[in-house]
Structures are given as C-alpha cells and as structure tokens.
Amino acid sequence: MNPLILDDLCERLQLTEVARLAGPRADSAAAAQDPYTAYLADLLQAEVDARQQRYVSSRVQMAHLPFRKPLDTFDFAFQPSIDERQIRELATLQWIDAAANILFLGPPGVGKSHLTVSLALQAIQARQSVYFVTIQDMIADLRRAWEDNRFPARLAVYTRPKLLCVDEVGYLPLERLDATLFFRLVSARYERGSMILTSNKSFSEWGEVFGDAVLATAILDRLLHHSTVVNIRGESYRLREKKRSQGRDGLLVPPASGTVHA
Hints:
This is ATP-binding protein. The chain is α/β, with parallel strands linked by helices and 262 residues long.
C-alpha cells in the first residue's frame, strides 16, 4: 500500500501511533516473519497504550493531584502498622463501585497523602473520575460560593467525581458555617460517591475540628457507614529523609581528634 494512503487513513481514524509505527514495525515483522495478525495486533496495542497514557496524563492534571506516585513506590517496610494486603485489596477499587469511603488517620508525614494519591491514580487508570483537594481550599471555595449565592452549582464540582479526595482534615479548625458546608458535601455524596479523607486527628477530636460535637457525629456517621479506616502509626518519611540528607551532607560528623564517644 502507498504510504501516503496509509497516512491518510490513519489521520481519518485518528490512529496517530499506528501511523508513526506502521513502517518500522512492518520491517521488524517481516524480518521476524511474524504473521500479519501479529503485526496488526502489535500496532493496535501500541495505539491503545498511547491513548491510555494520554488519557491518564490529562486526567491527572484535571484531578489536581499534588504529585504522581504509584502504589509501587510506597515503602511498606518503613510503616509496619500498615497492612499491605489491605492496601493492595483497596487498589482493586471495589469500594468505589460500592460508593464506600477510606479514611487514613495518623500523624504528619507517615504516608497518608501518598496512599491517597496512589489510589487516586489507580482509579484514573481505571477511567474513574477523580478530584483531589485540601479541605482548606475546598471550604474556602464553597464559602465564597455560599456568599455569592451560587453554592449549589459549586457544590456539584465536588459531588460530580466518582472519587473525591479530601486532604488535611483537622490541621486547622473550621468555623461553624464552614463545618456546615462540609456536612452538606458529605451528605450529598453519601451512598452516591466515594471519598478518601486524610486526617491527623482521631475521631474523638473531630468535635473540636468542626466546632460542634453533634455536627461532627453526623459527619462521621455518614462517612463511616460504608468505609475502611486505616490507622498509621510510625515515623515521618520526611524526617527520615532529612536525617539521611544530613548524613550525606556531612552535618553529622565526629570530633576532629581524640576518641569518638557513642
């Protein structure tokens, strides 16, 4: 076939990867004496892979993920309090189909956000809609919408995604109106869409976070009804990296002379 005709057909069908690889892969297939069906399957697989990569890249950007760390980059050995099998099971995303939630609890730096982003990436790869936001940014956005009489439309931004990830719950206390707006969000998503929340506060402290024990109980009642709670207890990854960096930079050095004491 005339290469120009093939290029035209690929352009019409938007097969950009097939057009790019058809010639080189044909030469390789001929040299290896591969059957035509294997050559065609190879080209189509390359097209599918390229489209998936473009899809994931665009959806990661739309989801506002703060970084891109897949689950395989998580150091489970450093956090023995985490059940790796449980996290791997969560990565199958069955809980999203059930509109259930995940709550990661623990002190700063233990990997809550990392696990959240990893599961969000897994969901994006499975072509689920995802949105990531800190609770401070989300509440500030919803409060502006409330004051401008456009709250329902703005709330839809956070209820529409199949998975909503809310980071840093509890790092700062919320005013009464803000806590009420968060309750409205949780109620709107209840049994309709999944959430992942990270918090450095135990549930017994959420009354202080939301400024009202009754309201906090109502929020937790909806979040925990269908949920998995993962408590992480361990050292901060950031502190570990700081210690390593200090060692590499020679900041932890023995005395210049004499005996080194332990």
